[in-house]
From TrEMBL, chain A:
Name under which the protein is recorded: ABC transporter permease
Top-level taxon of origin: Bacteria
Native source species: Pontibacter saemangeumensis
Keyword Transmembrane: yes
PANTHER family for the chain: ABC TRANSPORTER PERMEASE PROTEIN-RELATED
Annotated TM spans: 61-81, 88-106, 152-182, 202-228, 248-269
Matches recorded under Pfam families: MlaE
UniProt keyword list: Membrane, Transmembrane, Transmembrane helix
Lineage: Bacteria, Pseudomonadati, Bacteroidota, Cytophagia, Cytophagales
Signal peptide: none
Automatic annotation (TrEMBL), chain B:
Record protein name field: ABC transporter ATP-binding protein
Gene3D superfamilies: P-loop containing nucleotide triphosphate hydrolases (3.40.50.300)
A Gene Ontology molecular function term of the record: ATP binding
ABC transporter domain residues: 15-252
Organism: Pontibacter saemangeumensis
Short name of one Pfam family: ABC_tran
Keyword Nucleotide-binding: yes
UniProt keyword terms in alphabetical order: ATP-binding, Nucleotide-binding, Transport
Keyword Acetylation attributed: no
Amino acid sequence: MDQSNNKKTPPTRTRKYVFSRRADRIFLELSYIYAFVARFFREVLFPPYEFKEVIKQCYEVGVRSLPLISVTGFIIGIVFTNQSRPSLADFGATSLLPALISVAIVRAMGPLVTAIIAAGRVGSSIGAELGSMRVTEQIDAMEVSATNPYKFLVVSRVLATTFMIPALTMYTTLVSLLGGYLNVHQNELTTLTTFFTQVFDAITFLDIISSSVKSVLFGFTIGMVGCYKGYNSSKGTEGVGKAANSSVVTAMFLIFIEELLVMQVINAIRVL
Amino acid sequence: MKKINPNIIRENKVIEIRGLQKAFDEFEVLKNVDLNLYQGENLVVLGRSGTGKSVLIKIISGLLRADAGMVNVLGQEVGHLSPKQLDALRLKIGFSFQNSALYDSMTVKENLEFPLVRHSKHMTQRDRTRIIDVVLEAVGLTKAMHQMPSELSGGQRKRIGIARTLILRPEIMLYDEPTAGLDPITCIEINKLINEVQRRFNTSSIIITHDLTCARAVGDRLVMLLDGEFKRQGTFEEVFATDDERVKAFYNYNFID
Protein backbone atom coordinates (compact mmCIF):
# COMPACT_ATOMS: atom_id res chain seq x y z
CA MET A 1 0.00 0.00 0.00
CA ASP A 2 1.20 3.50 -0.81
CA GLN A 3 2.33 6.05 1.70
CA SER A 4 0.14 9.10 2.15
CA ASN A 5 0.38 12.13 -0.06
CA ASN A 6 -1.44 15.42 -0.24
CA LYS A 7 -2.08 15.47 -3.99
CA LYS A 8 -5.75 16.00 -4.79
CA THR A 9 -7.32 14.09 -7.66
CA PRO A 10 -9.77 16.23 -9.66
CA PRO A 11 -13.25 14.79 -10.33
CA THR A 12 -13.21 12.77 -13.51
CA ARG A 13 -16.96 12.25 -13.99
CA THR A 14 -19.12 14.73 -15.85
CA ARG A 15 -22.90 14.46 -16.11
CA LYS A 16 -24.58 14.92 -19.51
CA TYR A 17 -28.34 15.39 -19.87
CA VAL A 18 -30.58 14.03 -22.63
CA PHE A 19 -32.97 17.01 -22.61
CA SER A 20 -32.28 19.26 -19.65
CA ARG A 21 -31.55 18.61 -15.99
CA ARG A 22 -35.18 19.26 -15.04
CA ALA A 23 -36.76 17.27 -17.90
CA ASP A 24 -34.42 14.36 -17.30
CA ARG A 25 -35.38 14.33 -13.64
CA ILE A 26 -39.09 14.20 -14.50
CA PHE A 27 -38.59 11.27 -16.89
CA LEU A 28 -36.36 9.54 -14.38
CA GLU A 29 -38.99 10.01 -11.65
CA LEU A 30 -41.69 8.63 -13.97
CA SER A 31 -39.55 5.58 -14.69
CA TYR A 32 -39.04 5.05 -10.93
CA ILE A 33 -42.79 5.30 -10.32
CA TYR A 34 -43.48 2.82 -13.11
CA ALA A 35 -40.87 0.39 -11.73
CA PHE A 36 -42.25 0.79 -8.19
CA VAL A 37 -45.85 0.07 -9.23
CA ALA A 38 -44.87 -2.77 -11.59
CA ARG A 39 -42.86 -4.37 -8.78
CA PHE A 40 -46.01 -4.52 -6.67
CA PHE A 41 -47.77 -6.71 -9.22
CA ARG A 42 -44.71 -8.97 -9.45
CA GLU A 43 -44.24 -9.27 -5.70
CA VAL A 44 -47.91 -9.72 -4.77
CA LEU A 45 -48.22 -12.93 -6.78
CA PHE A 46 -45.21 -14.85 -5.55
CA PRO A 47 -44.40 -16.26 -2.09
CA PRO A 48 -43.37 -15.69 0.63
CA TYR A 49 -46.61 -13.99 1.67
CA GLU A 50 -46.69 -11.68 4.68
CA PHE A 51 -50.24 -12.58 5.84
CA LYS A 52 -49.69 -11.44 9.43
CA GLU A 53 -48.48 -8.04 8.34
CA VAL A 54 -51.39 -7.65 5.87
CA ILE A 55 -53.89 -8.39 8.66
CA LYS A 56 -52.10 -5.99 11.02
CA GLN A 57 -52.20 -3.27 8.38
CA CYS A 58 -55.88 -3.99 7.60
CA TYR A 59 -56.57 -3.36 11.27
CA GLU A 60 -54.56 -0.13 11.20
CA VAL A 61 -56.24 1.14 8.03
CA GLY A 62 -59.75 -0.16 8.63
CA VAL A 63 -60.60 -0.45 12.30
CA ARG A 64 -58.58 2.55 13.44
CA SER A 65 -60.25 4.76 10.82
CA LEU A 66 -63.76 3.85 12.01
CA PRO A 67 -64.28 6.61 14.62
CA LEU A 68 -63.23 9.39 12.22
CA ILE A 69 -65.17 7.92 9.30
CA SER A 70 -68.29 7.43 11.44
CA VAL A 71 -68.43 11.01 12.69
CA THR A 72 -67.56 12.54 9.32
CA GLY A 73 -69.94 10.33 7.33
CA PHE A 74 -72.83 10.93 9.72
CA ILE A 75 -72.36 14.70 9.71
CA ILE A 76 -72.04 14.80 5.93
CA GLY A 77 -75.35 12.88 5.62
CA ILE A 78 -77.13 15.39 7.87
CA VAL A 79 -75.57 18.50 6.31
CA PHE A 80 -76.10 17.36 2.72
CA THR A 81 -79.76 16.55 3.38
CA ASN A 82 -80.30 19.83 5.16
CA GLN A 83 -78.68 21.86 2.38
CA SER A 84 -80.60 20.04 -0.38
CA ARG A 85 -84.04 20.49 1.18
CA PRO A 86 -84.63 24.19 0.29
CA SER A 87 -83.98 23.58 -3.43
CA LEU A 88 -86.43 20.65 -3.53
CA ALA A 89 -88.94 22.51 -1.31
CA ASP A 90 -89.17 25.26 -3.96
CA PHE A 91 -90.69 22.66 -6.29
CA GLY A 92 -92.67 20.88 -3.56
CA ALA A 93 -90.48 17.84 -4.11
CA THR A 94 -89.05 17.15 -0.64
CA SER A 95 -90.40 13.61 -0.96
CA LEU A 96 -87.57 13.06 -3.45
CA LEU A 97 -84.91 13.77 -0.79
CA PRO A 98 -84.15 10.09 -0.03
CA ALA A 99 -83.59 9.41 -3.74
CA LEU A 100 -81.38 12.48 -4.12
CA ILE A 101 -79.32 11.64 -1.04
CA SER A 102 -79.01 8.06 -2.16
CA VAL A 103 -77.71 8.89 -5.64
CA ALA A 104 -75.30 11.55 -4.39
CA ILE A 105 -73.89 9.49 -1.54
CA VAL A 106 -73.66 6.11 -3.26
CA ARG A 107 -72.34 7.41 -6.57
CA ALA A 108 -69.90 10.07 -5.45
CA MET A 109 -69.78 11.27 -1.88
CA GLY A 110 -69.34 7.92 -0.14
CA PRO A 111 -66.22 6.83 -2.05
CA LEU A 112 -64.82 10.36 -2.30
CA VAL A 113 -65.24 11.33 1.35
CA THR A 114 -63.84 7.99 2.53
CA ALA A 115 -60.86 8.31 0.20
CA ILE A 116 -60.11 11.88 1.24
CA ILE A 117 -60.26 11.03 4.94
CA ALA A 118 -58.15 7.93 4.38
CA ALA A 119 -55.62 9.88 2.33
CA GLY A 120 -55.26 12.30 5.23
CA ARG A 121 -55.14 9.72 7.99
CA VAL A 122 -53.69 6.58 6.40
CA GLY A 123 -51.67 8.04 3.50
CA SER A 124 -49.77 10.47 5.68
CA SER A 125 -49.15 7.81 8.32
CA ILE A 126 -47.75 5.36 5.74
CA GLY A 127 -45.58 8.08 4.20
CA ALA A 128 -44.23 9.18 7.58
CA GLU A 129 -43.68 5.64 8.87
CA LEU A 130 -41.82 4.36 5.82
CA GLY A 131 -39.96 7.66 5.48
CA SER A 132 -38.76 7.41 9.05
CA MET A 133 -37.79 3.76 8.50
CA ARG A 134 -35.79 4.80 5.44
CA VAL A 135 -33.85 7.60 7.11
CA THR A 136 -33.10 5.52 10.22
CA GLU A 137 -31.81 2.69 7.98
CA GLN A 138 -34.49 0.23 9.16
CA ILE A 139 -35.31 -0.60 5.53
CA ASP A 140 -31.61 -1.22 4.85
CA ALA A 141 -31.49 -3.42 7.95
CA MET A 142 -34.29 -5.57 6.53
CA GLU A 143 -32.50 -5.80 3.22
CA VAL A 144 -29.17 -6.91 4.72
CA SER A 145 -30.96 -9.54 6.77
CA ALA A 146 -32.11 -11.01 3.43
CA THR A 147 -35.73 -9.98 4.01
CA ASN A 148 -37.57 -8.33 1.14
CA PRO A 149 -38.55 -4.92 2.59
CA TYR A 150 -40.75 -4.14 -0.41
CA LYS A 151 -42.86 -7.22 0.22
CA PHE A 152 -43.03 -6.73 3.98
CA LEU A 153 -43.69 -2.99 3.98
CA VAL A 154 -45.14 -1.97 0.62
CA VAL A 155 -47.15 -4.98 -0.56
CA SER A 156 -48.80 -5.45 2.83
CA ARG A 157 -49.80 -1.78 3.11
CA VAL A 158 -51.06 -1.44 -0.46
CA LEU A 159 -53.10 -4.64 -0.08
CA ALA A 160 -54.53 -3.37 3.20
CA THR A 161 -55.64 -0.03 1.73
CA THR A 162 -56.98 -1.74 -1.41
CA PHE A 163 -59.08 -4.15 0.70
CA MET A 164 -60.13 -1.78 3.46
CA ILE A 165 -61.06 1.41 1.58
CA PRO A 166 -63.97 -0.35 -0.24
CA ALA A 167 -65.14 -1.75 3.11
CA LEU A 168 -64.86 1.68 4.70
CA THR A 169 -66.70 3.19 1.72
CA MET A 170 -69.65 0.85 2.27
CA TYR A 171 -69.63 1.77 5.94
CA THR A 172 -69.42 5.53 5.22
CA THR A 173 -72.28 5.25 2.74
CA LEU A 174 -74.45 3.50 5.32
CA VAL A 175 -73.60 5.99 8.08
CA SER A 176 -74.21 8.97 5.78
CA LEU A 177 -77.57 7.53 4.73
CA LEU A 178 -78.45 7.12 8.41
CA GLY A 179 -77.53 10.76 8.99
CA GLY A 180 -79.69 11.71 6.03
CA TYR A 181 -82.53 9.57 7.37
CA LEU A 182 -82.43 11.28 10.78
CA ASN A 183 -82.75 14.67 9.13
CA VAL A 184 -85.53 13.53 6.79
CA HIS A 185 -87.37 11.79 9.62
CA GLN A 186 -87.18 14.89 11.79
CA ASN A 187 -88.55 17.18 9.08
CA GLU A 188 -90.78 15.01 6.88
CA LEU A 189 -91.64 12.26 9.41
CA THR A 190 -90.60 9.59 6.89
CA THR A 191 -90.28 6.10 8.34
CA LEU A 192 -87.06 4.11 8.14
CA THR A 193 -88.62 1.54 5.79
CA THR A 194 -89.98 4.15 3.41
CA PHE A 195 -86.67 6.01 3.44
CA PHE A 196 -84.59 2.97 2.57
CA THR A 197 -87.12 1.71 0.01
CA GLN A 198 -86.75 5.03 -1.82
CA VAL A 199 -82.97 4.91 -1.39
CA PHE A 200 -82.67 1.47 -3.01
CA ASP A 201 -85.21 2.34 -5.74
CA ALA A 202 -83.05 5.25 -6.83
CA ILE A 203 -79.75 3.40 -7.21
CA THR A 204 -78.85 0.94 -9.93
CA PHE A 205 -76.46 -1.96 -10.19
CA LEU A 206 -74.11 0.29 -12.19
CA ASP A 207 -73.98 2.74 -9.27
CA ILE A 208 -72.83 -0.02 -6.93
CA ILE A 209 -70.25 -1.20 -9.47
CA SER A 210 -68.91 2.29 -10.09
CA SER A 211 -68.70 2.99 -6.36
CA SER A 212 -66.85 -0.30 -5.77
CA VAL A 213 -64.42 0.21 -8.67
CA LYS A 214 -63.67 3.75 -7.51
CA SER A 215 -63.06 2.75 -3.91
CA VAL A 216 -60.70 -0.06 -4.96
CA LEU A 217 -58.82 2.41 -7.18
CA PHE A 218 -58.72 5.03 -4.43
CA GLY A 219 -57.46 2.48 -1.90
CA PHE A 220 -54.71 1.30 -4.22
CA THR A 221 -53.72 4.91 -4.96
CA ILE A 222 -53.58 5.95 -1.29
CA GLY A 223 -51.43 2.94 -0.37
CA MET A 224 -49.16 3.16 -3.37
CA VAL A 225 -48.56 6.92 -3.12
CA GLY A 226 -47.88 6.74 0.64
CA CYS A 227 -45.49 3.83 0.19
CA TYR A 228 -43.69 5.39 -2.79
CA LYS A 229 -43.16 8.70 -1.02
CA GLY A 230 -42.05 7.08 2.24
CA TYR A 231 -39.94 4.31 0.73
CA ASN A 232 -37.99 6.78 -1.39
CA SER A 233 -37.69 9.59 1.11
CA SER A 234 -34.31 11.11 1.91
CA LYS A 235 -32.72 14.12 3.61
CA GLY A 236 -33.37 13.06 7.19
CA THR A 237 -36.29 14.29 9.27
CA GLU A 238 -37.08 17.02 6.74
CA GLY A 239 -37.57 14.25 4.16
CA VAL A 240 -39.95 12.39 6.49
CA GLY A 241 -42.15 15.48 6.82
CA LYS A 242 -42.08 16.00 3.08
CA ALA A 243 -42.97 12.35 2.46
CA ALA A 244 -45.98 12.56 4.78
CA ASN A 245 -47.14 15.83 3.30
CA SER A 246 -46.71 14.92 -0.36
CA SER A 247 -48.37 11.52 0.27
CA VAL A 248 -51.58 13.34 1.16
CA VAL A 249 -51.38 16.03 -1.52
CA THR A 250 -50.49 13.64 -4.35
CA ALA A 251 -53.04 11.02 -3.29
CA MET A 252 -55.85 13.59 -3.11
CA PHE A 253 -54.91 15.02 -6.49
CA LEU A 254 -54.91 11.55 -8.07
CA ILE A 255 -58.18 10.63 -6.35
CA PHE A 256 -59.98 13.59 -7.96
CA ILE A 257 -58.49 12.75 -11.37
CA GLU A 258 -59.61 9.12 -10.99
CA GLU A 259 -63.07 10.23 -9.86
CA LEU A 260 -63.39 12.32 -12.99
CA LEU A 261 -62.18 9.54 -15.31
CA VAL A 262 -64.32 6.78 -13.77
CA MET A 263 -67.37 9.07 -13.83
CA GLN A 264 -66.85 9.68 -17.57
CA VAL A 265 -66.51 5.96 -18.26
CA ILE A 266 -69.59 5.07 -16.19
CA ASN A 267 -71.66 7.79 -17.83
CA ALA A 268 -70.60 6.48 -21.23
CA ILE A 269 -71.67 2.96 -20.20
CA ARG A 270 -74.93 4.33 -18.77
CA VAL A 271 -76.08 5.67 -22.14
CA LEU A 272 -75.24 2.47 -24.04
CA MET B 1 -4.51 -2.03 25.24
CA LYS B 2 -2.80 -3.82 22.33
CA LYS B 3 -4.68 -6.78 20.91
CA ILE B 4 -3.07 -10.05 19.87
CA ASN B 5 -5.16 -12.54 17.94
CA PRO B 6 -3.62 -15.96 17.16
CA ASN B 7 -6.76 -17.19 15.34
CA ILE B 8 -6.28 -15.24 12.09
CA ILE B 9 -5.89 -17.54 9.07
CA ARG B 10 -3.97 -15.45 6.52
CA GLU B 11 -4.32 -18.07 3.78
CA ASN B 12 -8.09 -17.66 3.80
CA LYS B 13 -9.45 -14.34 2.51
CA VAL B 14 -13.12 -13.93 3.38
CA ILE B 15 -13.33 -10.56 1.62
CA GLU B 16 -11.17 -9.51 -1.30
CA ILE B 17 -11.60 -6.10 -2.95
CA ARG B 18 -9.67 -4.92 -6.01
CA GLY B 19 -9.82 -1.55 -7.78
CA LEU B 20 -13.12 -0.54 -6.18
CA GLN B 21 -14.56 2.78 -7.38
CA LYS B 22 -17.72 4.58 -6.32
CA ALA B 23 -18.94 8.10 -7.08
CA PHE B 24 -22.10 10.03 -6.21
CA ASP B 25 -22.88 12.42 -9.05
CA GLU B 26 -19.55 14.14 -9.64
CA PHE B 27 -18.06 13.38 -6.24
CA GLU B 28 -15.70 10.39 -6.26
CA VAL B 29 -15.87 8.74 -2.85
CA LEU B 30 -13.83 5.60 -3.44
CA LYS B 31 -11.17 5.93 -6.13
CA ASN B 32 -9.12 2.77 -6.19
CA VAL B 33 -9.65 0.64 -3.13
CA ASP B 34 -7.86 -2.68 -2.58
CA LEU B 35 -8.60 -4.62 0.58
CA ASN B 36 -8.30 -8.10 2.08
CA LEU B 37 -10.09 -9.39 5.16
CA TYR B 38 -8.65 -12.62 6.51
CA GLN B 39 -10.58 -15.29 8.36
CA GLY B 40 -10.84 -14.55 12.07
CA GLU B 41 -9.49 -11.01 11.68
CA ASN B 42 -10.90 -7.75 13.04
CA LEU B 43 -10.03 -5.08 10.48
CA VAL B 44 -10.57 -1.45 11.43
CA VAL B 45 -11.21 1.09 8.69
CA LEU B 46 -10.30 4.59 9.83
CA GLY B 47 -11.06 7.84 8.10
CA ARG B 48 -12.73 11.20 8.45
CA SER B 49 -16.49 11.59 8.06
CA GLY B 50 -17.59 11.57 4.43
CA THR B 51 -14.53 9.67 3.18
CA GLY B 52 -16.61 6.67 2.08
CA LYS B 53 -16.08 4.24 4.97
CA SER B 54 -19.78 3.40 5.28
CA VAL B 55 -20.11 3.31 1.49
CA LEU B 56 -17.44 0.60 1.47
CA ILE B 57 -19.34 -1.76 3.79
CA LYS B 58 -22.63 -0.98 2.05
CA ILE B 59 -21.03 -2.14 -1.20
CA ILE B 60 -19.75 -5.29 0.53
CA SER B 61 -23.26 -6.11 1.76
CA GLY B 62 -24.84 -5.32 -1.61
CA LEU B 63 -26.79 -2.27 -0.41
CA LEU B 64 -24.90 -0.10 -2.92
CA ARG B 65 -23.45 -1.03 -6.27
CA ALA B 66 -19.84 -0.29 -7.13
CA ASP B 67 -19.10 1.73 -10.28
CA ALA B 68 -16.03 -0.37 -11.02
CA GLY B 69 -13.82 -3.01 -9.42
CA MET B 70 -14.21 -6.43 -7.89
CA VAL B 71 -15.75 -7.22 -4.51
CA ASN B 72 -15.44 -10.87 -3.59
CA VAL B 73 -17.13 -12.03 -0.40
CA LEU B 74 -16.76 -15.65 0.73
CA GLY B 75 -15.77 -16.63 -2.81
CA GLN B 76 -18.68 -14.86 -4.52
CA GLU B 77 -18.49 -11.65 -6.51
CA VAL B 78 -21.17 -9.40 -5.02
CA GLY B 79 -21.83 -7.36 -8.16
CA HIS B 80 -22.61 -10.44 -10.25
CA LEU B 81 -25.08 -12.19 -7.95
CA SER B 82 -28.78 -12.68 -8.64
CA PRO B 83 -31.14 -11.34 -5.93
CA LYS B 84 -31.57 -14.88 -4.57
CA GLN B 85 -27.83 -15.51 -4.45
CA LEU B 86 -27.30 -12.12 -2.82
CA ASP B 87 -29.88 -12.96 -0.15
CA ALA B 88 -28.13 -16.28 0.51
CA LEU B 89 -24.82 -14.44 0.89
CA ARG B 90 -26.37 -11.81 3.15
CA LEU B 91 -27.35 -14.52 5.61
CA LYS B 92 -23.62 -15.00 6.20
CA ILE B 93 -23.01 -11.27 6.75
CA GLY B 94 -24.08 -9.39 9.86
CA PHE B 95 -24.44 -5.63 9.53
CA SER B 96 -24.50 -3.48 12.65
CA PHE B 97 -25.78 -0.01 11.72
CA GLN B 98 -24.52 3.26 13.14
CA ASN B 99 -27.90 4.08 14.70
CA SER B 100 -28.69 0.43 15.41
CA ALA B 101 -31.66 0.53 12.97
CA LEU B 102 -33.93 -1.41 15.33
CA TYR B 103 -37.51 -1.74 14.12
CA ASP B 104 -39.32 0.91 16.17
CA SER B 105 -42.73 -0.75 16.07
CA MET B 106 -41.46 -4.09 17.43
CA THR B 107 -40.26 -5.19 20.86
CA VAL B 108 -36.67 -6.38 21.32
CA LYS B 109 -37.87 -9.98 21.08
CA GLU B 110 -39.78 -9.29 17.85
CA ASN B 111 -36.73 -7.49 16.45
CA LEU B 112 -34.60 -10.55 17.11
CA GLU B 113 -37.29 -12.93 15.87
CA PHE B 114 -37.80 -11.03 12.62
CA PRO B 115 -34.91 -12.62 10.65
CA LEU B 116 -35.40 -16.01 12.35
CA VAL B 117 -39.07 -16.29 11.38
CA ARG B 118 -38.20 -15.62 7.76
CA HIS B 119 -35.11 -17.76 7.40
CA SER B 120 -35.70 -20.65 9.77
CA LYS B 121 -39.32 -21.42 8.99
CA HIS B 122 -39.31 -24.95 10.36
CA MET B 123 -37.95 -23.84 13.70
CA THR B 124 -40.35 -24.15 16.63
CA GLN B 125 -41.20 -21.16 18.82
CA ARG B 126 -39.32 -22.84 21.67
CA ASP B 127 -36.13 -23.12 19.61
CA ARG B 128 -36.47 -19.49 18.52
CA THR B 129 -36.81 -18.34 22.11
CA ARG B 130 -33.75 -20.41 23.07
CA ILE B 131 -31.65 -18.78 20.32
CA ILE B 132 -32.88 -15.33 21.32
CA ASP B 133 -31.91 -16.09 24.93
CA VAL B 134 -28.41 -17.11 23.78
CA VAL B 135 -27.74 -13.93 21.79
CA LEU B 136 -29.27 -11.67 24.45
CA GLU B 137 -27.06 -13.34 27.01
CA ALA B 138 -24.06 -12.81 24.69
CA VAL B 139 -24.74 -9.06 24.59
CA GLY B 140 -25.67 -8.95 28.29
CA LEU B 141 -29.25 -7.78 27.89
CA THR B 142 -31.47 -10.74 28.81
CA LYS B 143 -33.86 -8.49 30.74
CA ALA B 144 -34.61 -6.26 27.75
CA MET B 145 -36.53 -8.95 25.85
CA HIS B 146 -39.97 -7.32 26.09
CA GLN B 147 -38.90 -3.69 25.94
CA MET B 148 -39.50 -1.38 23.00
CA PRO B 149 -36.41 0.14 21.28
CA SER B 150 -37.52 3.61 22.44
CA GLU B 151 -37.14 2.45 26.06
CA LEU B 152 -33.47 1.50 25.58
CA SER B 153 -30.36 3.66 26.01
CA GLY B 154 -27.97 4.28 23.09
CA GLY B 155 -25.57 1.59 24.30
CA GLN B 156 -28.37 -0.93 24.81
CA ARG B 157 -29.69 -0.23 21.32
CA LYS B 158 -26.22 -0.90 19.89
CA ARG B 159 -26.06 -4.18 21.78
CA ILE B 160 -29.49 -5.28 20.58
CA GLY B 161 -28.52 -4.25 17.03
CA ILE B 162 -25.46 -6.51 17.30
CA ALA B 163 -27.59 -9.29 18.82
CA ARG B 164 -30.00 -9.09 15.88
CA THR B 165 -27.16 -9.55 13.41
CA LEU B 166 -25.75 -12.47 15.45
CA ILE B 167 -29.02 -14.35 15.46
CA LEU B 168 -28.38 -15.86 12.03
CA ARG B 169 -24.81 -16.82 12.99
CA PRO B 170 -22.96 -14.74 10.36
CA GLU B 171 -19.41 -15.51 9.29
CA ILE B 172 -18.62 -11.84 8.66
CA MET B 173 -19.59 -8.86 10.82
CA LEU B 174 -19.67 -5.31 9.48
CA TYR B 175 -19.81 -2.64 12.18
CA ASP B 176 -20.64 0.89 11.12
CA GLU B 177 -19.36 3.33 13.78
CA PRO B 178 -20.12 1.01 16.72
CA THR B 179 -19.11 3.57 19.37
CA ALA B 180 -20.49 6.73 17.76
CA GLY B 181 -22.47 8.89 20.19
CA LEU B 182 -21.73 6.76 23.26
CA ASP B 183 -20.09 7.73 26.54
CA PRO B 184 -16.51 6.45 27.16
CA ILE B 185 -17.58 3.68 29.56
CA THR B 186 -20.21 2.35 27.15
CA CYS B 187 -17.61 2.59 24.35
CA ILE B 188 -15.31 0.29 26.34
CA GLU B 189 -18.22 -2.15 26.84
CA ILE B 190 -18.99 -2.14 23.12
CA ASN B 191 -15.29 -2.71 22.31
CA LYS B 192 -15.27 -5.69 24.67
CA LEU B 193 -18.44 -6.97 23.05
CA ILE B 194 -16.91 -6.76 19.56
CA ASN B 195 -13.92 -8.81 20.74
CA GLU B 196 -16.22 -11.23 22.54
CA VAL B 197 -18.31 -11.71 19.38
CA GLN B 198 -15.13 -12.41 17.40
CA ARG B 199 -13.96 -14.99 19.96
CA ARG B 200 -17.28 -16.64 20.72
CA PHE B 201 -18.89 -16.68 17.26
CA ASN B 202 -15.63 -17.00 15.32
CA THR B 203 -16.42 -14.08 13.02
CA SER B 204 -14.23 -11.99 10.75
CA SER B 205 -15.12 -8.30 11.02
CA ILE B 206 -14.73 -4.92 9.43
CA ILE B 207 -15.15 -2.12 11.94
CA ILE B 208 -15.71 1.38 10.57
CA THR B 209 -14.77 4.04 13.06
CA HIS B 210 -12.95 7.28 13.71
CA ASP B 211 -12.62 6.48 17.41
CA LEU B 212 -8.97 5.53 17.90
CA THR B 213 -9.58 4.04 21.35
CA CYS B 214 -12.02 1.64 19.74
CA ALA B 215 -9.62 1.02 16.83
CA ARG B 216 -6.79 0.14 19.19
CA ALA B 217 -8.98 -2.08 21.38
CA VAL B 218 -10.64 -4.16 18.68
CA GLY B 219 -8.41 -3.98 15.60
CA ASP B 220 -6.01 -6.75 14.62
CA ARG B 221 -5.08 -4.58 11.65
CA LEU B 222 -5.96 -0.99 10.74
CA VAL B 223 -6.32 0.71 7.38
CA MET B 224 -6.79 4.43 6.85
CA LEU B 225 -8.93 5.85 4.08
CA LEU B 226 -7.52 9.08 2.65
CA ASP B 227 -8.68 10.69 -0.59
CA GLY B 228 -10.72 7.63 -1.56
CA GLU B 229 -7.80 5.19 -1.19
CA PHE B 230 -6.27 3.13 1.58
CA LYS B 231 -3.03 5.00 2.08
CA ARG B 232 -1.84 3.40 5.31
CA GLN B 233 -2.23 -0.03 6.85
CA GLY B 234 -0.77 -2.12 9.65
CA THR B 235 -0.95 -2.21 13.40
CA PHE B 236 -2.05 0.87 15.32
CA GLU B 237 1.55 1.99 15.84
CA GLU B 238 2.50 1.37 12.19
CA VAL B 239 -0.41 3.39 10.84
CA PHE B 240 0.41 6.43 12.95
CA ALA B 241 4.20 6.29 12.49
CA THR B 242 4.15 8.94 9.76
CA ASP B 243 4.78 12.62 9.17
CA ASP B 244 1.60 12.99 7.11
CA GLU B 245 -0.24 15.94 8.65
CA ARG B 246 -3.67 14.45 7.96
CA VAL B 247 -2.83 11.26 9.84
CA LYS B 248 -1.16 13.15 12.68
CA ALA B 249 -4.18 15.47 12.98
CA PHE B 250 -6.40 12.43 13.29
CA TYR B 251 -4.25 11.04 16.10
CA ASN B 252 -3.94 14.36 17.90
CA TYR B 253 -7.68 14.95 17.84
CA ASN B 254 -8.33 11.60 19.52
CA PHE B 255 -5.51 11.67 22.07
CA ILE B 256 -5.08 15.36 22.73
CA ASP B 257 -3.89 16.20 26.25
